[in-house]
Amino acid sequence: MELEDALAAMFAAQQREDPSASLGDLAFRTLRETILRGHLRPEQKLSENQLARAMGVSRTPIRQAIHMLESEGLVTTSRRQISVQTFQLDELEEVYLIRRALEGLATELAAINMTDEEIAELDEVVELMAFYMERGNLPSLQQTSRDFHQRIYDGSRNKMLALMLGNLWSYIESARGGTAAEERITGDPLKSHRIILRALHDRD
């Protein structure tokens, strides 16, 4: 029941935020957010009826949402049984390798296409990351890091590339199952962001 209550609350919040969105989109956003926050763990089983009941919708928008989640690699389906995706170490290594290559391309294009104002906004994002790091707020630090990278993806002005990289982020976050919020900050996670930012300022 706790899961169904959480889904109902998140669905209502999504609906308040974007009342014009279709039920399928709202269901997709709700489930995606639930998976990425770690409320739904890898291999956890769900059913269309359970999800429809929790969100107060028919099974049609649930099916639409599940189809979109499958395309992002977040769930699998078999005989109407829905399972949160399970990830193997070798699969994650492949994903990180692909992300590294695509991020290099996105940053190269962003150095050419981002405006000075957009790059200046990245300075503020890095400062916000430093703020969260000083306070040991890892969840907010990670979310701000994703915002930093997403701005670069969008700044590449290549929609397909930005979409692919966004999906890879989702895949990795789901694989981590929300456990990252319990980890401790080690090293200097800002170092690489500052190197990227300096290169963007130099249009390098």
Would you give an account of this structure?
The chain has 204 residues and is mainly alpha-helical. It contains nine helices and three strands; from the N terminus they run H-H-E-H-H-E-E-H-H-H-H-H. Helix 1 crosses helix 3, helix 5 packs across helix 7 and helix 7 runs antiparallel to helix 8. The relative contact order is 0.12. A hairpin with a 2-residue loop joins strand 2 and strand 3.
Provide mean pLDDT, rounded.
87
Alpha-carbon distance between the two ends: 53 Å
CA radius of gyration is: 18 Å
Order of helices and strands: HHEHHEEHHHHH
Descriptive labels:
204 residues, mainly alpha, 3-stranded antiparallel sheet, 9 helices, 70% helix
Task: Summarize the topology.
Elements: H1 2-17, H2 23-36, E1 45-47, H3 48-55, H4 59-71, E2 75-78, E3 81-84, H5 89-113, H6 116-134, H7 138-155, H8 159-176, H9 190-201
Antiparallel strand pairs: 1-3, 2-3
Helix pairs in contact: 1-2, 1-3, 2-4, 3-4, 5-7, 5-8, 5-9, 6-7, 6-9, 7-8
Summarize this, please?
With 204 residues, the protein is mainly α. The chain has 9 helices and 3 strands, in the order H-H-E-H-H-E-E-H-H-H-H-H. A 3-stranded antiparallel sheet has the order 1-3-2.
